[in-house]
Amino acid sequence: MKLMRVGEIGQEKPAMLDADGKIRDLSGHVSDIAGAAISPEGLAKLAALDPKTLPELQPGRIGACVAGTGKFICIGLNFSDHAAETGAAVPPEPVIFMKATSAIVGPNDNVLIPRGSEKTDWEVELGVVIGKTAKYVSEADALDYVAGYCVSHDVSERAFQTERAGQWTKGKSCDTFGPIGPWLVTKDEIADPQNLGMWLKVNGETMQNGSSKTMVYGVAFVVSYLSQFMSLHPGDVISTGTPPGVGMGMKPQRFLRAGDVVELGIEGLGTQKQTFQADL
Ligand code: ZN
Question: Among residues 12, 24, 166, 179, which is most buried (max CB within 10 A)?
């Protein structure tokens, strides 16, 4: 299933995309794409519905594909070729950092370049949405706790991230720096999360063209790993790292300016498109 949230900010309705590309209203069945609705039992109930019997919604703004996200956890330097372009070594175990959940926006919403920013950068990433509370889970069982996947844009301000002391969170958490969606694609539709093409363009020019194949620590490992340190809850999102081609790694470096348009996508998970604008 491709689950989504459609409507103006704060008024999104839960919905699913049917086989004909029509948006079907789920608000008669669940209050949101969140919590129990994305548990294994909740997803089974939604899967049993006949989409044709659900009211059709007109296309409009698409919201973030999941609500009620308590934690937005990112994995740093998780593609060997991206680590190389940043001059960093592949870490001996996953580097994790947090992105504030207040950064979450819809996949096509405008992204704000924060005040004082000169180094706003892009990162296409595979997002993993948790569907069931995970604590001390094994790698073998880890995918049982995953509801599905989405496109995640880990927008990053490199000066805030690396030149302003401390760790990375302040360069990752600015308002609108977390577009997720358009869909939460349930995991039954993704045969192998470690074999998905990933791409990103700036103003039509391809910047990133990679695959989740070159991820160092794969989805199952990462879910298991994180669950050794903290419980993961339904609606939590893990952004699993970016392939090479970010602006910071270019020579000369290249960063986003007001008016730039970024498009990104992952095989089977849909696409996003954002216009960048100054946060006045
Ligand atoms: Zn990232």
Answer: 179
